[in-house]
Amino acid sequence: MRRLAATAFLALLLVLAVPGTAAADEDNWSIPRYDLTASAAADGAVDVRLSFDFDFAGTEGHGPYVTLPLRQRIAGDPDHERAFTVTDVTAASPSGAPAQVETEEDGGALAIRVGDEDVEVDGVQSYEIGYRIRGVVNPATGTAGQDEIFWNVVGDAWEVPLSGVTVRLTGPAAVVGARCSAGQDGSDAACAAADVAGDTVTYRQDRVEPGTGLTVTAAWPAGTFVGAEPQLVPRRHLGNTFTLDPLTGGLAAALALVGAGALAAHARRRGRDQQYVGLTPGLGPVGAETAATVPRSRRAPVAVRFTPPDGVRPGELGTLLDEVAHTHHVTATVVDLAVRGHLRITETRAADGDGDGGTEVRSWRLVRTAERDRPVERLLPYEDLVLQRLFDGRSEVALDDLGPSFTGTVGKVQAALYAAVTDQGWFVANPATVRRRWYGIGAAVLLAGAALTLVLALTVGWGLVGLAVVLVGVLVLVVAHTMPARTAAGSAVLAQALGFKTYLETAEADQIRFEEGEDLFSRYLPHAIAFGVAERWAGVFAELAARGHDVPVPAWYVGPQPFAFAAVGGSSFADTLGAFSQAATTSMTAATAGTSGGSGMSSGFAGGGVGGGGGGGW
């Protein structure tokens, strides 16, 4: 049996958890008499009777409390703790004070509270507390193999001083040795007395101050106690909850590899885009023709395309390209509706209010065009939704004041964009639904792995195996956004979109060709916003204007001064367009977010024994 090393029981946390413990105005409380009688049976059970006087010193209190450890660290054995069992707790007051008893386990300790929370007492009151404790006997641990009790009968967690301390320890046979120490942990100062008389040792100490303790040792012949071996319970820590050995390491590696392999196989089989075989990228079968499909190669060259795919709205094109319906795709839809004549964007400027007149603040208003001036065309559901929520029965609205009328609209428009690209057969399944499903799977695997880690770590020390499951969950979450897969038809349109995006990204001013009166800038601007290259596209036309070309002025945009692509007063329309796009995206996002809310044996020095604890008044 290993020799047990000293560990002071830290009951302060438990003491703080007991309501109404001694405060500053109760500093004068004390225990002027403290008698503890303990009788150890041959089976190791120790019956304890604690009799003491509690002096409330003119400050009323409810009664005393005592804390006893139920767990204690073992020096040299990090994988176990020594356990104690306390039963049969009783309390009485010979002086007539309330003596109701309440017990509570917390933090590896037992709190015994005596008194009535509705009644306060004063003066000196007498109390008796009784209990039975198992686990304090150390068989065959003496230098000659004796059985011992090495016990911190007064722990260092007492909050009040103890005077007139007497401890009587009786065993089932004649005592063959005894000693005691008093003071702070590690002290070898002998207590006032340790007198042996047959099977009993009487220990005395005049005073025990708060933060110090009294440790007693008594030895009996080997074999005195039978079946009284210390109670050891597993103690879990990083070293033994995540044990790495061939078994746990192999299982963890196998789980991680199998999970990652299954995820990769699924992603390869169902998470990859498809493309037509034998057809030029961007083209699909004509009429009733069919074509075989294979996984799409992301290395295929992109052919520049000078026009967008026929009949595809900018927001849909951006969603197809990104696999995500972003807020700027909604902004592109607003501008597209303006270009097509359903609304007008009006810019205003005002001084910033600082009084120096040197800085202007830009703002924009969206103006609904008169019904007679609107084009006759069928709007898509999400386009109609945008117009309804933007104006909400009004003829115009400030971009900064979208507020409640636009709450939730961005999310609904995004959902409609996902539905549109799915209904047109460009994706195997709705991208948002696929991502949500895989994020849900990843979160479920992650939580299951965390629970499994906790269970395995605290039971058999195989936490590493559970961590492998956690790793698989993390991998699923990482790749969830890549799970939406385009169909071969979707890949064909994607090739066209990539070709048109390349054109918008690379076109130079001297490469732009348009017919007289043709507003090529406005026609492709919504696509440029959806692709994130609007400012560059505007910059190309600013350069054309600076060279003297007759560039048509957009009719859907009204500014505070005559429209000019090239810089006027240090600002170009490219700057203005960038500011508007940012303001529109911010305003729509803010409108949506606004309501979404959002744990020595033989040395005999003080504190070196088992048990301990403390107490005080409440």
From TrEMBL:
It comes from the Bacteria. Residues 307-539 form the Predicted membrane protein YciQ-like C-terminal domain. Keywords: Membrane, Signal, Transmembrane, Transmembrane helix. The keyword Membrane applies. This is Predicted membrane protein. Residues 30-220 form the DUF2207 domain. Residues 1-24 form the signal peptide. The chain crosses the membrane at residues 247-265, 438-456, 462-480. It comes from Friedmanniella luteola.
